[in-house]
Amino acid sequence: MNTVPTPYPIGTPGVPWGEVERADWLSRQNRRRSYESEVMSVIDSLRFRFDIEEYGRLDYGLDRYPMMAIRSGDWDDNLPIILVTGGVHGYETSGVYGALQFVDQHAAAYSGRVNLLVAPCVSPWAYERIHRWNPNAADPNRSFHDSLSPEESAEESAALMRLVAPIRDRVLMHIDLHETTDTDETEFRPALAARDGKAFEPGMIPDGFYLVDDSENPQPDFQQAVIEAVEQVTHIAPADSKGEIIGSPIAARGVILYPLKQLGLCASITSAPYRTTTEVYPDSPSATPEQCNRAQVVAVCAAIDYALAHR
To answer: Which residues pair with residue 236 across a beta bridge?
Structure first.
């Protein structure tokens, strides 16, 4: 998808936002779906099979959200730990639904083999508004830095880091479930440029599934095992004419590399030897919402299977 840049409706081009612009932006964000009925209700239905934990609570004025995690009911400290996160960007729907569907449909198959910790919707305020940011116009998936002060960090990120802190050095595999959407190019990247007082440079949204590996600790065989499993249910994003996906050179088919820790990405919050970020394209004419959810589930299962076989 190619776009032609138009001036963002908030702020002055070239000037970073101040409090007035952020307040203007926030006033335009409306609730469009329900975290309680669409996410919490599913989590509640799993209580008799798993341990459910409230690991934080977001308090944004009149909006209050419990932050929920799902744990193996038969947690055994002798077993490896698997971390699954979704909804770090609340608008990336299949990340949330994929995490929940994995727990409901497949988690039991790993009972007695791993300890599962799943945070299916890290950003519930953004989930309801189908947005990338939290109400402070902060991107949680750039806020996973130990060095950030409470004022600098997104609370969504800080709460998840507190949850994971006791086990961060014991996690075998962490998979973070995301999407790349057309609105990345039409809304979210233009908003980011406007917020930071920078010029928006149009790009192209890849059509298909891809993964983001860690440039500081690449695991190409692990990434390819996930790609090969997912392509059984949906198509893999091809490189563009520059040999890139989303502006990054491909490391292998369907895989790019980011410095996860440097960027403060969610996939950097543990010392897991196996880490990946999924990216599904829900706006593709060749994929349905069900396929996108299924791709996330298959990616989780393939990632766990590989990690267990190669630990």
So the answer is: 209
Query: Quick count: other Cβ atoms within 10 Å of Cβ 75?
Result: 12
Separation of alpha carbons 151 and 38, rounded Å:
30
Residue with tokens 């932050």: 67
Residue 192 neighbours by CB distance under 10 Å: 18
For 140, phi then psi, to 5°, come to -55, -30
Distance CA 298, CA 276 (A): 14
CATH code at position 271: 3.40.630.10
Is 294 within the bounds of a domain? yes
293, with CB counted inside 10 A (0-12, 13-18, 19+), is buried
DSSP code string of 115-184? EEEEES-S-HHHHHHT-SS-TTS--GGG---TT--TTTS-HHHHHHHHHHGGGTTTEEEEEEEEE--HHI
Task: Give a yes or no: residue 264 inside a domain.
Answer: yes
Domains in the chain: how many in total? 1
Token readout for 134 is 């939290």
pLDDT along the chain (311 residues), means of 10: 69 96 97 98 97 97 96 96 98 98 98 98 98 96 80 86 97 98 96 96 94 98 98 97 96 98 96 98 96 98 98 93
Q: Are 180 and 246 in contact (CB under 8 A)?
A: yes
Handedness of CA 241, 245, 246, 249 (dihedral sign): negative
Which residues pair with residue 202 across a beta bridge? none
Could you give the CA distance from residue 34 to residue 216 in angstroms, rounded to a whole number? 38
Domain that holds residue 220: 19-309
Please report the pLDDT score of residue 151 as a whole number.
54
